[in-house]
Amino acid sequence: ADAEPPPTPLSNSAGMANLTIENQTERQLVLLYASPSGDEDWGPDLLEGAVVVPGDVVTFVLPPGWWDVKCVLEDEDQVTFGELELEADDYVLSLLPDEGPGEEDAPEPR
User: Fold this and answer.
1) What are phi and psi of 2, to 5 degrees?
2) I want to staple 66 with a disulfide (CB 3.0 to 4.6 A). Which of 24, 37, 39, 97 is the partner?
3) Where are the alpha helices (DSSP H) in the chain?
4) CA distances from 101 to 27, 47, 73, 77, 94 (A)
5) Does the pTM exceed 0.85?
C-alpha cells in the first residue's frame, strides 16, 4: 500500500498573531509600519502603497511578541503605539479622531 503523505498544517498562520487596524479618523491612513519593540528600524510599509480610508479596517499577520506600530495619516500626522503584546489571536488597534482646536472642548476666547 502507498504511504500516506504527512499531514499539512491547516494554514500558514498557525501560531501567528493577527493585528487589525481600524481607521476611525476622518483621514486616510497612508503608511503603516510594525517592528519588534526595541528595533531601531521600522522596516517596509506594510500597506505597500495602498491606503486605508476612513471607517475601513486592515489586518496583518505577524509573529507573536512585542511590537511597535507607526501609523502615518494623509497629512503626515504620525501616531505611534509602543510595546503592543501580540499573542496568537486578534489584536485590534483603533485610530481615533483627533480632538483638535475647534472641538467643543476648546476653551472659549475671552
Assistant:
1) -70, 145
2) 37
3) none
4) 16, 30, 18, 15, 21
5) no
Q: For residue 69, is pLDDT > 60?
A: yes
Distance CA 18, CA 12 (A): 12
31-60 pLDDT, tens digit per residue, is 999 999 999 999 999 999 999 999 999 999
Q: Copy the grid coordinates of residue 25.
A: 479618523
Number of residues assigned to the chain? 110
Strand 90-95 to 17-23 pairing: parallel
Q: Is residue 12 within 8 Å of 20, Cβ to Cβ?
A: no
**CB-hemisphere CA count at 13 Å for 69?**
22
Which tens digit of pLDDT belongs to each residue from 98-109? 755 444 444 555
Question: Which DSSP helix (H) or strand (E) runs through 29?
Answer: strand 29-36
- Look at the block and give the residue holding cell 503523505: 5
